[in-house]
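Section 5: illustrative case.
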């Protein structure tokens, strides 16, 4: 369990804070209150910092704790869950790194590196059907790995 730490949101000092656990609180009222985030169609969470100023929570967390992104960087959710805005789950990275992450989090083929290696190593040795059953994926998923459509970096 992580201890919750709070930092001021850059540009909103003395008005809004964000925590390492992904919560945002406002000081606009007489006493601080936790803001309830809205869910975007992508699954990311956002909060309004003032009227008509919606901000993604993951960007607020990373910026407050790690500084702003470098040129061409975006937020990566390491576990693939866009609503998990805990600092330990977030890092700045390139679009390519973020895209590479997405294939590992795909519901269609969610495998470990060892599982992918096992499938590749056994091409032509064990049938696609047997590998699919063993790894709880479809036969077409096995073929996609063999053809380099998925997990071609392993």
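Designed sequence:
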């Amino acid at each position: 369990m992580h201890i919750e730490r709070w930092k001021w949101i850059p540009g909103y000092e003395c008005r809004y804070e964000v925590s390492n656990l992904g919560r945002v609180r406002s000081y606009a009222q007489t006493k601080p209150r936790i803001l309830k985030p809205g869910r975007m169609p992508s699954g990311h969470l956002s909060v309004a910092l003032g009227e008509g100023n919606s901000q993604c929570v993951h960007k607020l967390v990373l910026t407050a704790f790690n500084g702003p992104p470098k040129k061409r960087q975006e937020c990566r959710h390491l576990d693939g869950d866009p609503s998990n805005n805990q600092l330990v789950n977030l890092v700045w990275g390139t679009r390519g790194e973020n895209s590479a992450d997405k294939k590992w989090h795909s519901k269609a083929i969610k495998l470990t590196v060892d599982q992918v290696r096992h499938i590749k190593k056994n091409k032509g040795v064990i049938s696609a059907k047997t590998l699919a059953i063993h790894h709880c994926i479809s036969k077409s998923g096995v073929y996609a790995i063999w053809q380099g459509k998925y997990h071609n970096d392993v």
